[in-house]
Amino acid sequence: MKYANIREEELKNSLAADFFSQLGCTGIIGNIDFAVKLNSEC
């Protein structure tokens, strides 16, 4: 498994890079741990 035995923050960063690199993943919305937005909405 590609994401086995890594910390939560590293997992979020890896998913953002691998699947959502064309979108905005750095914003924090309330208590949501991970969110993806169109770059035009960032």
Structural descriptors:
single chain; 42 residues; mainly alpha; 1 helix; 29% helix
Beta-strand residue fraction: under 5%
Counting structural domains, the number is: 1
| N-to-C order of helices and strands | H
Q: How many individual β-strands?
A: 0
What is the percent of helical residues? Answer: 25-40%
Secondary-structure-derived class = mainly alpha
Count of helical stretches: 1
Largest sheet: none
What is the rounded distance between the termini?
32 Å
Q: Which residues form runs of ≥5 with pLDDT under 50?
A: none
Return the average pLDDT rounded to an integer.
85
Report the principal-axis shape: flat
Radius of gyration: 11 Å
Q: What report would you give on this structure?
A:
The chain has 42 residues and is mainly α. It has one domain (8-41). It has one helix at residues 8-19. The longest helix is centred in the N-terminal third of the chain and has 12 residues, at 8-19. The radius of gyration is 11 Å and the shape is flat. The model has no long low-confidence stretch (mean pLDDT 85).
Write the layout of secondary structure elements.
Elements: H1 8-19
Quick description:
Helices cover 29% and strands 0% of the residues. The protein is mainly α.
